[in-house]
Write a structure and sequence with these properties.
Elements lengths: L10 E13 L5 E8 L3 E7 L1 H4 L3 E6 L7 H8 L8 E5 L11 E2 L9 E7 L4 E3 L1 H5 L36 E3 L3 E13 L4 E5 L9 E6 L2
Antiparallel strand pairs: 1-2, 1-12, 2-11, 3-4, 3-6, 4-5, 7-10, 7-12, 8-9, 10-11
Amino acid sequence: MKLLLLGMTKFILARKGAMSRIFQADGTAVAVTKIMAEPCLITQIKTTETDGYQAVQLASGTRRKTTKPLLGHSKAAGGAGFQFIKEFKVPASDYKVGQKIEVTAFQPGDKVAATGWSKGRGFQGVVKRHHFHGHPTSHGHKDQARMPGSIGAGGVQHVRKGMRMAGRMGNEQVTVHNLEVIKVDSQNHELLLKGAVPGAYRGLILIKAQN
């Protein structure tokens, strides 16, 4: 059964597509990101009485191999092994298990928040990770150009918490707010969002309307 989100919170699971641009009626070019959003199924409704909070669990995609617990969990929704299962904290009283959510729930002009996971950059130094400008490459500095420098005063006798140092960069959850829906392509199950969306190509994106 298709879910009509009229006066309700709009949300969907999607994948990030390629970036492009489209021309509006006045001739101006708008940079957009293609969002590929196949129809999603609601697999679970969480309520305050049973779970302590309200949320809707949404699933999309398929996978060749899955565990029996996940198959049993999605059986009530009429689905098989889903590739992605995520929760959206929205009022759960308006939804039912097995309902379908599609891109037609959104309209051009809607403001949405896109949540993705940034690209992992591995272990990086302070110049790339924190944009340190480095030391001058003259007057005895030798190979110290990209070094972080002092990390603490002598009297403290320990490194303060939060000190900007080298370490793992990227692979973090990032949310971009107030992205405008430029176009809704119901035939190809795609949304065109104005601007950039976090994450890598074909990475998982959580789309939720801004209230």
